[in-house]
Design brief:
By secondary structure, the chain is an alpha/beta fold. It has 14 helices and 20 strands. The protein has 4 domains: 124 residues, Methylthiotransferase, N-terminal domain (Rossmann fold), CATH 3.40.50.12160; 128 residues, 2-Layer Sandwich (Transcription Regulator spoIIAA), CATH 3.30.750; 93 residues, Transcription Regulator spoIIAA (2-Layer Sandwich); 89 residues, OB fold (Dihydrolipoamide Acetyltransferase, E2P). The structure holds 5'-deoxyadenosine and iron/sulfur cluster. 5'-deoxyadenosine (5AD) binds next to strand 13.
Length: 473
C-alpha cells in the first residue's frame, strides 16, 4: 500500500487531543502516517472546538489559511471534524470550497470509509449523524509520540447537564460511558507501549456508568489502580454536584491516584450558579472542598471560572473573588462569557460590556497569580516526586546555568505542578535516561507557571506514588 501523509491540527480541548489520536488510529489502515509538515500532506484533518467564541474563530481562520495550501496542492484532501463541524455541518462546505469533508463528533469511526470514497471519486461529504450508543468501543488509538509517557483515555462522551452557557450537550450529544473492560484493555495496551500515567477523560467523569448500570467511577478507578506498570492516574473533568464521598475517599485509598482534582465552580454567587443551571450552591461546593482536604490534606485543587455571565453584577463578581480567596486554588482557567449558538444563555438579558468582562478577568487573574506565587513559595525546600516527561530548552539561569537555551528536564508532580531541573548532573543529553522515570526533586525556585529544582534521587530510588516528603531546606 502506498504510504500517504496525514496532518492533524487540533484546536481546543483535551477531548480533541484524544480524538486526534483516534483519527490517526482509524486512518492508519488506509496507509496514512502522521506528518508535522502541512505543505506535504495528502490529507489534513482540522479538529475544531466551539466551546468558546475564540476557539471557533481560531478554527475558521486556520481553515481560511488552508485555501492557499490547497491551491498549491489540489490533490490535498481537507477534512473538518470536531464540535464546529457538528454545529455547522453543510454550511462549512458551502462557505469553504476547498473543504472536502465535514465529519461530526460521532463520525470518527466512519472516517476511513468516507476518506476512501473521496480518494476514489473526489466527492464532497458531510456526516454529522449522532447516536445514543457509544460507538468508539474498540481501542483504536493512534501510535504514541516517541518518548510519550502520559496518555489520555476517554471513558465517556457527551454531557447531560445542560449548563445554560454551554454548547457541549448540543454538539457532543448525550452522555454515554464505555464499558470498563474496554477501558482497562486500552490502558494495559498503553502501559505495554511505555505509558506510565493516564488521564481518564469525560465531560463529567463523576457520573461514569450511571446510565448504563456499569460500575461506578470509583470502582473503575480501583481497577485502573491495579494495572501493573502504571504509575499514576489522573482524571478530568468533575462536576461538583456529582462528586460523591466514595470518590473523595478514593484520594485517601488509591496509591496511584494523583493528588489533584479539577473541580470547576464557574462562579461564587448562588444566583449566578442557579441561572447557569449548575445545580449546586456555593456552600455545597465549599463543603466538597473541605471533605477533599480532610481525605487528602495536600490535594491540589484547580477550577474553571466564567466572568461576565449575563446579568452578573459587581457584587456577584466580588463573590467569585471571595470564593477564590477562600479556596485558595492551585490554578485557575478563567474565561469571559461568550454567547454560543444553541446555548440558552445566549437569549438571556443583561449582557455585560466587553470592557467590563476584560477588566473582571484581569482582576481575577491577578488575584490568582498572587495565590499561585504564595503556594509556589511554600513549596521551596520540599522534595517532590516527578514523573519525567522529557527535555526542553531553557533560557533560565537556574535550570540551565549557561542560560544558552540548553537542555533541561521537565516533569510533573502528583499535584500537577510543572518542574524543571538541570540536565547537567551526568544525565544530560541521554533522553532515554530519565524520560518515564520517577525522580525526587528538591524544589529551589519558583516562576510564574513552573518550579525549578535539583535532582536528589532517581530514577531508581524515587518513589513512584505517594512518597512525597518534606525535608529541611
Ligand atoms: N463562555 C465562556 N466560557 C465558557 N465555558 C464553557 N462555555 C462557555 C461560554 N459560553 C468554559 C467553562 C467550562 C470550560 C471548559 O469552558 O468554564 O468549564
Ligand atoms: Fe458544558 Fe456543563 Fe456539560 Fe461541562 S457539565 S460540558 S459546562 S454542560
Amino acid at each position: 500500500m502506498k504510504s500517504k501523509l496525514l496532518h492533524i491540527s487540533t484546536i481546543g480541548c483535551q477531548m480533541n487531543v484524544y480524538d486526534a489520536d483516534q483519527i490517526a488510529g482509524v486512518l492508519a489502515p488506509l496507509g496514512y502516517t502522521g506528518t508535522d509538515a502541512i505543505e506535504t500532506a495528502d490529507l489534513v484533518v482540522v479538529n475544531t472546538c466551539t466551546i468558546r467564541e475564540k476557539a471557533e474563530q481560531k478554527a475558521f481562520s486556520f481553515l481560511g489559511r488552508l485555501a492557499k495550501i490547497k491551491a498549491a496542492n489540489p490533490s490535498l484532501i481537507v477534512a473538518v471534524g470536531g464540535c464546529v463541524a457538528q454545529q455547522e455541518g453543510q454550511a462549512i462546505l458551502k462557505r469553504m470550497p476547498h473543504v472536502d469533508l465535514v465529519f461530526g463528533t460521532h463520525a470518527i469511526f466512519r472516517l476511513p470509509e468516507m476518506v476512501r470514497r473521496i480518494e476514489q471519486t473526489r466527492c464532497r461529504l458531510v456526516d454529522v449523524r449522532m447516536s445514543d450508543a457509544i460507538d468508539s468501543d474498540s481501542a483504536l488509538v493512534g501510535p504514541l509520540a516517541p518518548g510519550q509517557v502520559s496518555a489520555f483515555v476517554t471513558i465517556m462522551r457527551g454531557c447531560d447537564n445542560f449548563c445554560t452557557y454551554c454548547v457541549v450537550p448540543h454538539v457532543r450529544g448525550r452522555e454515554a460511558s464505555r464499558h470498563p473492560d474496554r477501558i482497562i484493555e486500552e490502558i494495559r495496551m498503553r502501559v505495554d507501549q511505555g505509558v506510565r500515567e493516564v488521564t481518564l477523560l469525560g465531560q463529567n467523569v463523576n457520573s461514569y456508568g450511571n446510565k448504563e448500570g456499569l460500575c461506578s467511577f470509583s470502582e473503575l478507578l480501583e481497577r485502573v489502580n491495579d494495572i501493573p506498570g502504571l504509575g499514576r492516574i489522573r482524571f478530568t473533568t468533575s462536576h461538583p454536584k456529582d462528586l460523591s464521598d466514595d470518590l473523595i475517599g478514593a484520594f485517601g485509598r488509591l496509591k496511584k491516584l494523583c493528588r489533584h482534582i479539577h473541580l470547576p465552580v464557574q462562579s461564587g454567587d448562588d444566583e449566578i450558579l442557579r441561572r447557569m443551571n449548575r445545580r449546586y450552591t456555593r456552600a455545597a461546593y465549599m463543603d466538597k472542598v473541605a471533605r477533599l482536604r480532610v481525605q487528602c490534606p495536600d490535594i491540589a485543587i484547580t477550577s474553571d471560572m466564567i466572568v461576565g455571565f449575563p446579568g452578573e453584577t459587581d457584587r456577584q463578581f466580588q463573590a467569585t473573588l471571595d470564593l477564590i480567596r477562600t479556596v485558595r486554588y492551585d490554578g485557575l482557567f478563567a474565561f469571559m462569557y461568550s454567547d454560543r449558538p444553541s446555548a440558552p444563555a445566549t437569549a438571556f438579558s443583561g449582557k455585560i460590556d466587553e470592557r467590563v468582562k476584560k477588566a473582571r478577568l484581569q482582576t481575577l487573574l491577578d488575584l490568582q497569580a498572587g495565590i499561585t506565587a504564595e503556594k509556589y513559595q511554600a513549596m521551596l525546600g520540599q522534595v517532590r516526586t516527578v514523573l519525567v516527561e522529557g527535555t526542553s530548552r531553557s533560557l533560565d539561569h537556574f535550570t540551565n546555568p549557561a542560560g544558552d537555551g540548553g537542555l533541561q528536564w521537565t516533569g510533573r508532580t502528583s499535584s500537577n505542578h510543572i518542574v524543571h531541573f538541570p540536565a547537567d548532573e551526568g544525565n544530560s543529553g541521554d533522553k532515554e535516561l530519565l524520560t518515564g522515570a520517577f525522580a525526587d526533586i528538591m524544589i529551589e525556585t519558583a516562576h510564574a507557571h513552573s518550579l525549578g529544582g535539583r535532582l536528589i534521587q532517581g530514577p531508581m530510588g524515587a518513589t513512584p506514588e505517594k512518597g512525597e516528603k518534606t525535608i529541611a531546606a
